[in-house]
Input
Amino acid sequence: MSWKTSTCYECDANCAIQVELDEGGEPIRVQGPDCPRCYVQLDRRNHPDRILYPLKRVGPRGSGDFERVSWDEALDTIAMRLSGVKEAHGAPAVGFFAGYTKEARPQLQRLAHAFGSPNYLTESGCCFSATMVAEKVTFGYKIKTTSTVVSPKTRCHLIWSTNPRGSIPPFDTHPLVRHRPGKHLIVVDPRRTPLAEEADIHLAIRPGTDGALALGFHHLIFENGWQDQSFLDEWANGVEAFREYVRDFTPARVASICGIPEADLRAAVELFATTRPAQITLSPTATVQHSNGFQNHRAVILLSAVTGNLDREGGNRFLNDKVAPKPIELFDHCRTHLPPRVGDEVYPVWTRYWPAAQSMLLPDCILDGRPQRIRALLAMGINTAMWPNSKRMEQALGALDFFAVTDFFHNPATRMADLVLPAATSLERPALIAYPGCAYQGELRYRRPVVAPKGEARPDGAIFLELGVRLGMGDQFWNGDLESSWAEAAEGIPEEIRREVYENPDGVTVYAEAIEDLVEHGFMDADRLYRLRGFRTRTGKVEFDSIELREAGHDGLPIYREPAESPISTPEIARDFPLVLTSGARTKFDTHSQHNYIDRMRRAIPHPAAEIHPDDALQRGINDGDAVMVSSPRGAVRFVAKVTDRIKPGVVHCTHGRNDANINELTDDRHLDPISGFPPFKSLLCEVTRAEDAGDLEVRPRGTARRQGAEAA
Output
C-alpha cells in the first residue's frame, strides 16, 4: 500500500487530497475534505458507463448508436473535417468549446487561435464572467471571489443570494455558516435557507428584483446620511446623478416590487449601513442570470462603495493579481490578428474583458448564422443543459456539418456528436494549477497523475495538442507533449519558486505585489489599495455612472428593469403561467450536471425537485412527493413536488443540471442580458400541475402554452 498527494477536481476548488493505492498501483481510497464530491472520484474512474474508447456515430444524430474506432482514425477524421470546413468557409466557421473540466482550456484555446478561429467559447458565457465584468467596469477590480473569505473584523454580513452550505467548500463547516457573537447577519434569498433562519433579517425577494432592492438600500442610506461622504467626494464618479436616480426607489415602492415587508427593508438597511465594517457575500451567478442582471449586480456592489466598505479589512476586498503561469492560449494573437469573436458584435463590453466568444449565441450561430455562421464544433465537456431553451441547442448540434467532443459519460450533447473521445479524470492527468485564493494570497502547484488512465482515455489537453500536430502545427504544440505545454506555462513563475511548485506536493503560497507596495508607502493597514493606485476605471474612480457603458450605448447608471418575463412586465403570459420560476440553488452533492451518473450522489438527491409553497400547492391539488409538470412558454418538464414553506409564495424553484429533468428546456433564450449576453435562468414564469392532470396542456415550442378551451393571450 502507498499514498500519493493530489488535488480534487469535482469542482474547481482544487482541494488537496491523499489517494491510497493498492499493491498493483490502483487507487482504492481518497482522503480529503469532508465533502461528498471528493469521495466520488473513484466512482467516476471506475463507473461502468464511463466512455473508455473513441467512438464514431453510426446511427442518426441523437440515437446514441456508436462504434469503437482507433485513436488514429478519430484524430485523423477530426483534423480532416475541421480542415475541410476551414477551406470551404473559413476558420471562424469552426467553434471550439470548453465546459468542464476547465484545466485543458489553455490547450484548446491555443488550438482554436492557431487554427485561425477567434471562436473559442466556454461555459463562462453564463457563469461568473458577468459578475467579473460588472465589477471591472465599476471598480476596475474584482471583489466577488474575495467576498466569501471571512475576516474577523467584519461586524455585519450581507449574504446576497448565495448559500455557503451548498455552494462553497467545505460547506457545513465554512466560516460563513458559523455564527459568531456580536456579528450581524442579513440574508437576501427567495428561499429560506438554514443560513437565512439564523439571520437577524431575511429578505425573501421575488427573483430578478435584486437591483430594485439594492437601489432601495441606496435610497435609505442617502436619505439618512449613512453614506461615507468623504470617500464619495474623493473617489466617486457620477454619484450625484445616481443619488437623484435612487430618490424614486422609496421603501414602499421597493417593498412592493420585491414582495417584502417595508419594515424589514428599513431595518436591514440601517443594520448594514451603520454596523461597520460590513461585507457583502456574493454569488458568481445569482445576481447576473437575469435579463437585467449586469446592472442589478452593479447596484448591489455599489453598496460597498457608498458605505466606505470597499477594499477595507472586514469589508469587500479587491482580488489582486499574484504570480501566475505564462499565458499559452494565444489570445493576444486572437485580439490582434483574427476576425471578431462571436459576441463582439452585440456584447462588446463583455468581450473586452472576457477572453472568449459568447457561447450563449451558439444556437443562433449554427441555426440562423447570427451574428456569425458556425458549421463545425470541437468541444470538451459540453451538455445542452447549460443553454436556455435547451432543446433548441440540441437541434443546433444536430444541424452542424461536423461535431466532435471529449467527455467521461454520454449526455444529450454527446449523443449528437460524430465522434466522442474518452477523457482522463483529474486522477489520471497532469495539470499546472493556479488557485486565486484571497485578496493578497494564492497558491500554485503542479499535480502529477496518480494513476494511468483507464481504457484508452487521454487527458483533454493531450488530445488537443495531438490535433494541433495532425493539423500540421507540431512545433506550436510541443509535438503533442502535454507536460511540455505546462512547462512553458510554468516559465511565468519566478525561477526561485518554480522548482518548489513542481516538487512540493502541497503547493506553494504566492502573494500579490500590492501588499508590499502598500506597506512600503506607509499604509501599514495594508488595505484600501485605491489610495495608492486609484481605481482602474476610465476616471480612476468608482463608476456610479459608467463612461464605458455609455460609450457602448448602455445606461451609465445601474438602471433597474423588470425581468423580461414577470407578472409585472408580461401580464399576458402570467395569466397562463402565474408562478415565478427560478433555479440553480447549489448542493454539495453535485456540480451542475457532472454527477448525474454517480449512484451515491443520486441517493442523496434521488429526484429532480420542484419546490413549491404550501399555499400554491393547495390551490393546485399538489401534495408533497407528487409527480408534477412544470411548464413555461417553451415547454414542459416532469419533476417531483417538494411542498415546503422554505420557498417564497408565488415562486417555484427547480433543480438544475439534471439530464432526466432539464429545467433549462423551460428557460428563455430570447431575452439575454444586453451587456453580458447572460440568460435569465433565475427569473421567469411557469405553471405547475399534477402530472396526471397535465394532459390537457397544449405545449408549443415557441409561443404561449394554454389550457384547451382557454382564450389565447
User: Anything to note?
Assistant: DSSP finds 26 helices and 27 strands in the chain.
